[in-house]
Write a structure and sequence with these properties.
Elements: H1 3-19, E1 40-44, E2 49-54, E3 57-63, E4 85-93, E5 101-104, H2 109-117, E6 127-129, H3 135-143, E7 152-153, H4 156-165, E8 171-175
Parallel strand pairs: 1-8, 6-7
Antiparallel strand pairs: 1-2, 2-3, 4-5, 4-8, 5-6
Protein backbone atom coordinates (compact mmCIF):
# COMPACT_ATOMS: atom_id res chain seq x y z
CA UNK A 1 0.00 0.00 0.00
CA UNK A 2 1.47 3.37 -0.90
CA UNK A 3 1.75 6.26 1.58
CA UNK A 4 -1.16 8.21 0.14
CA UNK A 5 -3.56 5.24 0.31
CA UNK A 6 -2.38 4.45 3.83
CA UNK A 7 -2.89 8.09 4.91
CA UNK A 8 -6.40 8.21 3.44
CA UNK A 9 -7.27 4.88 5.08
CA UNK A 10 -6.00 6.09 8.46
CA UNK A 11 -7.92 9.36 8.15
CA UNK A 12 -11.13 7.48 7.28
CA UNK A 13 -10.67 5.18 10.27
CA UNK A 14 -10.19 8.12 12.61
CA UNK A 15 -13.23 9.89 11.18
CA UNK A 16 -15.40 6.81 11.71
CA UNK A 17 -14.07 6.37 15.25
CA UNK A 18 -15.08 9.98 15.96
CA UNK A 19 -18.66 9.17 14.97
CA UNK A 20 -19.15 6.41 17.53
CA UNK A 21 -21.31 7.29 20.48
CA UNK A 22 -19.53 5.88 23.50
CA UNK A 23 -15.98 4.97 22.60
CA UNK A 24 -13.21 6.53 24.62
CA UNK A 25 -15.60 8.04 27.15
CA UNK A 26 -17.33 10.27 24.59
CA UNK A 27 -21.09 10.41 25.06
CA UNK A 28 -23.38 11.02 22.10
CA UNK A 29 -25.52 14.15 22.17
CA UNK A 30 -28.24 12.09 20.46
CA UNK A 31 -30.13 10.45 23.26
CA UNK A 32 -32.87 7.85 23.00
CA UNK A 33 -36.32 8.25 24.58
CA UNK A 34 -38.97 5.58 24.97
CA UNK A 35 -41.34 7.14 27.51
CA UNK A 36 -44.76 8.72 27.07
CA UNK A 37 -45.18 10.81 23.93
CA UNK A 38 -44.70 14.57 24.28
CA UNK A 39 -48.10 15.80 23.06
CA UNK A 40 -47.34 19.51 23.51
CA UNK A 41 -44.82 22.03 24.76
CA UNK A 42 -45.84 24.98 26.92
CA UNK A 43 -43.56 27.94 27.51
CA UNK A 44 -44.46 30.42 30.25
CA UNK A 45 -42.30 33.42 29.37
CA UNK A 46 -43.02 35.28 32.62
CA UNK A 47 -41.92 32.34 34.76
CA UNK A 48 -39.06 31.48 32.35
CA UNK A 49 -40.25 27.86 32.22
CA UNK A 50 -40.64 25.28 29.46
CA UNK A 51 -42.88 22.26 30.08
CA UNK A 52 -42.94 19.07 28.03
CA UNK A 53 -46.48 17.71 28.33
CA UNK A 54 -48.17 14.36 27.81
CA UNK A 55 -51.79 15.48 27.62
CA UNK A 56 -52.31 17.20 31.03
CA UNK A 57 -49.25 15.63 32.69
CA UNK A 58 -45.94 17.50 32.95
CA UNK A 59 -43.19 15.14 31.84
CA UNK A 60 -40.29 17.59 32.23
CA UNK A 61 -39.80 21.19 33.34
CA UNK A 62 -36.86 23.42 32.40
CA UNK A 63 -35.68 26.94 33.22
CA UNK A 64 -35.19 28.97 30.03
CA UNK A 65 -33.53 32.13 28.78
CA UNK A 66 -35.42 34.18 26.19
CA UNK A 67 -34.81 37.00 23.74
CA UNK A 68 -32.93 40.05 25.03
CA UNK A 69 -36.18 42.10 25.15
CA UNK A 70 -38.54 39.44 26.52
CA UNK A 71 -41.64 41.46 27.40
CA UNK A 72 -44.39 41.26 24.80
CA UNK A 73 -44.78 39.17 21.66
CA UNK A 74 -42.32 39.12 18.78
CA UNK A 75 -43.50 41.46 16.03
CA UNK A 76 -40.51 42.35 13.87
CA UNK A 77 -37.09 41.12 12.90
CA UNK A 78 -34.47 42.34 15.36
CA UNK A 79 -36.85 43.28 18.19
CA UNK A 80 -35.24 40.75 20.57
CA UNK A 81 -38.59 39.32 21.61
CA UNK A 82 -39.63 35.69 21.87
CA UNK A 83 -42.90 34.93 20.04
CA UNK A 84 -46.22 34.40 21.82
CA UNK A 85 -48.99 32.22 20.44
CA UNK A 86 -49.41 28.70 19.18
CA UNK A 87 -46.99 27.18 16.69
CA UNK A 88 -45.56 23.73 15.90
CA UNK A 89 -42.13 22.16 16.03
CA UNK A 90 -41.27 21.96 12.34
CA UNK A 91 -37.58 21.13 12.03
CA UNK A 92 -34.42 20.21 13.89
CA UNK A 93 -30.82 21.14 13.34
CA UNK A 94 -28.07 18.85 14.61
CA UNK A 95 -25.45 21.22 13.10
CA UNK A 96 -26.72 24.40 14.73
CA UNK A 97 -24.49 27.26 15.94
CA UNK A 98 -25.84 26.16 19.32
CA UNK A 99 -25.70 22.72 20.90
CA UNK A 100 -28.61 21.21 18.91
CA UNK A 101 -31.79 23.08 18.06
CA UNK A 102 -35.47 22.38 17.48
CA UNK A 103 -37.31 24.81 15.18
CA UNK A 104 -40.57 26.64 15.85
CA UNK A 105 -42.89 27.51 12.95
CA UNK A 106 -42.76 31.28 13.60
CA UNK A 107 -43.69 33.35 11.62
CA UNK A 108 -47.18 32.24 10.66
CA UNK A 109 -49.44 34.07 8.16
CA UNK A 110 -50.78 36.42 10.85
CA UNK A 111 -47.24 37.33 11.99
CA UNK A 112 -46.22 38.07 8.38
CA UNK A 113 -49.31 40.19 7.75
CA UNK A 114 -48.74 42.27 10.91
CA UNK A 115 -45.12 42.92 9.99
CA UNK A 116 -46.00 43.74 6.37
CA UNK A 117 -48.71 46.19 7.52
CA UNK A 118 -46.02 48.01 9.50
CA UNK A 119 -43.53 47.98 6.62
CA UNK A 120 -41.24 45.54 8.40
CA UNK A 121 -40.12 41.93 8.24
CA UNK A 122 -41.39 39.45 10.88
CA UNK A 123 -38.04 37.77 11.46
CA UNK A 124 -37.74 34.04 11.82
CA UNK A 125 -35.33 31.26 12.69
CA UNK A 126 -36.84 30.83 16.15
CA UNK A 127 -35.57 27.70 17.92
CA UNK A 128 -35.32 25.97 21.25
CA UNK A 129 -31.58 25.44 21.54
CA UNK A 130 -28.65 24.77 23.83
CA UNK A 131 -25.68 26.99 24.56
CA UNK A 132 -23.54 28.63 21.85
CA UNK A 133 -20.81 26.52 20.29
CA UNK A 134 -18.58 29.62 20.00
CA UNK A 135 -16.61 30.00 23.28
CA UNK A 136 -16.84 33.83 23.31
CA UNK A 137 -20.63 33.73 22.81
CA UNK A 138 -20.97 30.94 25.40
CA UNK A 139 -19.09 33.06 27.97
CA UNK A 140 -21.41 36.03 27.33
CA UNK A 141 -24.52 33.80 27.56
CA UNK A 142 -23.38 32.48 30.94
CA UNK A 143 -23.23 36.04 32.33
CA UNK A 144 -26.54 37.38 30.97
CA UNK A 145 -30.16 36.31 31.39
CA UNK A 146 -32.33 36.48 28.26
CA UNK A 147 -29.42 36.60 25.85
CA UNK A 148 -30.91 35.18 22.64
CA UNK A 149 -32.23 37.13 19.65
CA UNK A 150 -35.72 35.68 20.29
CA UNK A 151 -35.12 31.97 20.78
CA UNK A 152 -35.61 29.81 23.86
CA UNK A 153 -32.32 28.60 25.38
CA UNK A 154 -31.73 25.72 27.79
CA UNK A 155 -28.58 23.90 28.92
CA UNK A 156 -26.83 21.53 26.54
CA UNK A 157 -27.91 18.51 28.58
CA UNK A 158 -31.51 19.72 28.50
CA UNK A 159 -31.60 20.30 24.73
CA UNK A 160 -30.27 16.77 24.23
CA UNK A 161 -33.24 15.48 26.23
CA UNK A 162 -35.73 17.77 24.44
CA UNK A 163 -34.27 16.82 21.03
CA UNK A 164 -34.87 13.14 21.82
CA UNK A 165 -38.34 13.55 23.33
CA UNK A 166 -40.03 16.05 20.99
CA UNK A 167 -41.13 15.08 17.49
CA UNK A 168 -41.74 17.36 14.52
CA UNK A 169 -45.40 18.35 14.42
CA UNK A 170 -45.65 18.80 18.21
CA UNK A 171 -47.73 21.86 19.19
CA UNK A 172 -45.94 24.57 21.16
CA UNK A 173 -47.83 27.27 23.09
CA UNK A 174 -45.77 30.31 24.04
CA UNK A 175 -47.55 32.26 26.79
CA UNK A 176 -46.73 35.73 28.20
Amino acid sequence: MNRRAFGMSAAASLALAGCSSTTGGTVSRFKAYDGPQVTSIVINKGARKLYLMHNDEILREYKVDLGFAPLGPKRFEGDGKTPEGTYVINRRNPNSSYHLSVGISYPNNQDRALARANGKRPGGEIFIHGQPNNPKERKRASRVDDWTAGCIAVTNEEIEEIYAMVQDGTTIALRP
